[in-house]
Task: structure prediction
Amino acid sequence: MSLSNRPKTSILDKPLSKGKGEVSLSCFALLFSEVVQYSQNKSSTVPELQNRLHSLGYNVGSKIIDLYFVRERNAKREIKLLNILLFIKSTLWKALFGREAEKLEHSNDDENTYYLMEKEPLVNKFISVPRDKGSLNCAIFIAGIIESVLTGTGFAAKVTAHWHKGTTYMVKFDESVVARDKQLEDK
Amino acid sequence: MSRSSSRIDTKKVNSELVTLTYGALVAQMIKDLDNADDVSKQLERLGYNMGIRIVEDFLSKTGSGRCLDLKDTADKVQMAFKMYLGVQPNVANWSAAGDEFSFILDSNPLTELVELPDDLKNLKYCNIICGVLRGALEMVHLDVQSWIVQDQLKGDSNTEIRLKFIRRLEDSIPAGED
Result:
């Protein structure tokens, strides 16, 4: 076997695209529908299906981190908790979905928890949830993206999606992350 | 035919969202199935499911009528590529009998940011497109076969998707009513 059939130009030799390309929404909606169906066929319970969608989103998120920080932020990462949340709410949301997420709130009861709200996530636009699967929210896919971006930039968190005022993403940071952020503030 | 062409397809999404979602799906399938050939087959099937639904979207948005011949079909599919993927392929390499031709893509949003590892060189990453073509055309009574001839992910200069007309399908009784 020879090694000569490796392509001469690798993906890293090409300039980074501007990311302005567009495809039709129908195309994405049908693809996402297949993603959900495929995941459903592979799982027997709703939580299992949610986990699968979450982990697919997680994979998407991990690719986005470098892409967006290089493109939008001159390769500079965020070190403050609030800033990374704002980065997700505005920059990332705008790039991915064409608009900012609607609301970002800090929980009153738990200082480690934040809520990101969106009336109608793009992925849920054409999805009607069957009665017997009432708790299923396919935006868990997007929760996976958020979790991956936060975790990958050093803000370990768990992110879940819930039906509340549309869809609410609950971001629960690891205690150590919040403690570190406080130290940063004290300086 | 009353709709003006300016109203054709309105909503768009960022192509990277599609690229990455598709990439995550393929990666997951490889984990689940563990065999590149099975993944290629499954991708074709997913595409087929998308195709049988996308054709309605296409017909309602363009209001296009019947095709007179395969050339006509090729033109319409070319238009559909532009509508859905935002890229316009060339139609080329017609067979002498006129029942076979290729779509040639210079770029393809599905493969942006994608690199195939050496151990997956026989994966047909874009097989989903072949499936979409088969599904969509079946819904307008054309039985076709579609496969990938050249693939940019494997070092070819462009991606070539071949389409072969098999036969015209007759009206069939809807499933469950026989």
